[in-house]
């Protein structure tokens, strides 16, 4: 039943009851509305404090009447329009947080894919469908921050969802080593117990096995466990930062066992995947980045999802601190401010060459003249802007910049920075020109 219908019924009932004087009803109750925060939480929205006062006194019988009409117990509050709007906002933030909690686990669904990682995801899915029989071990490798742990945990979650009763165990390599070392210290009985415990596992996942290199006795036991898993068609999933053959500190027999199943690499993210991940993480964080901002982040951090998450957390934090309205658009300037104190390696997309290209085009000067010593006004301006942006966007120091601009010394660069800073302070038009140039560079 619609709230308007429910309210109509309740009002009819109120008129016919002797709970309220007709003149009070006409003036204060008839004009109120029934709304809801959720199905069980109804709100009478009133137009004045006096109306609120009258209705609060009637809240109990009204609540009972509505509960009877809808066939279930409801909660009822009386709020002014402003109070109701505020409550609604709080409610939506709370439900968003809940939603975020739900998606914060490691799943296949929240693993965003593109050409760099689709093979790894498909391999993970396929292993689940053929546990222990098809590809054993599954060996996932790639640089840090690209989702290896995410995939291992997603496999573990997915397997346990679909195979209740299976004993699935995820180990970081240090947990794994500690488990084995502890038992070695405690003597023969403990070793046997550890072996039995390992035998009870049906699916074992060990993360970052490069850290197990050179660990002597642990390795030997690992090798035994490994073999018995394979023999018994129990699935093993391993991750590492390197391809098996490049792992040092394991003996040859082991290395060849690692690659006997299926080895898949997670490659460095391509631009599109990195943008998709940024898009997705922003959606979860409820922040609205302009498309330049996304490209900007991607160009600096695009190769490492962990860094992307870090920067998005930072933006979210600033955003809440500065009490911005939800949904407010965040532009490149805002982000570069946040990133000012961030030390990062220059990203793949932005290069000194690109900066020179965009700047020389903007000022209509020949790109070669930027590196020259020509003192024509426009060229000087373009040169200074390009130097300044190289410092800002690529975090290079004065000497490095000088070198990249035809071998100028660092005082020349310092001079350029001083000039640009002065313009930025005094000249509004210049500020917006710089903003536009920056946008063109990062897009
Ligand atoms: P690794 O183990 O390779 O160092 P992680 O699995 O710990 O990397 O990933 C770092 C963070 O980035 C994690 O929070 C993870 O959920 C997230 N992440 C990595 N790849 C993706 C992806 N493709 N889609 C969504 N989130 C990802
Ligand atoms: Mg990891």
TrEMBL record:
MF terms in GO: ATP binding; DNA replication origin binding; lipid binding
Indicate where this protein resides in the cell: Cytoplasm
Domain named AAA+ ATPase: which ranges? 134-279
Amino acids binding ATP: 145, 147-149
* A GO cellular component entry from the record: plasma membrane
Cite a single GO BP annotation: DNA replication initiation
Q: Which UniProt keywords apply?
A: ATP-binding, Cytoplasm, DNA replication, DNA-binding, Lipid-binding, Nucleotide-binding
Boundaries of every Chromosomal replication initiator DnaA C-terminal domain copy:
351-420
Region Domain I, interacts with DnaA modulators, residue ranges: 1-87
What broad class describes the main subcellular location of this protein? Answer: cytoplasm
Region Domain IV, binds dsDNA, residue ranges: 320-443
> Mind telling me which Pfam families this protein's record contains?
Bac_DnaA, Bac_DnaA_C
- Please name the SUPFAM superfamilies in this protein's record: P-loop containing nucleoside triphosphate hydrolases, TrpR-like
Entry's free-text remark on domains: Domain I is involved in oligomerization and binding regulators, domain II is flexibile and of varying length in different bacteria, domain III forms the AAA+ region, while domain IV binds dsDNA.
Q: Quote the subunit structure annotation.
A: Oligomerizes as a right-handed, spiral filament on DNA at oriC.
Q: What does this protein do?
A: Plays an essential role in the initiation and regulation of chromosomal replication. ATP-DnaA binds to the origin of replication (oriC) to initiate formation of the DNA replication initiation complex once per cell cycle. Binds the DnaA box (a 9 base pair repeat at the origin) and separates the double-stranded (ds)DNA. Forms a right-handed helical filament on oriC DNA; dsDNA binds to the exterior of the filament while single-stranded (ss)DNA is stabiized in the filament's interior.
Record's HAMAP family?
A: DnaA_bact
- Record family assignment: Belongs to the DnaA family.
Its recorded name reads Chromosomal replication initiator protein DnaA
Native organism: Spiroplasma turonicum
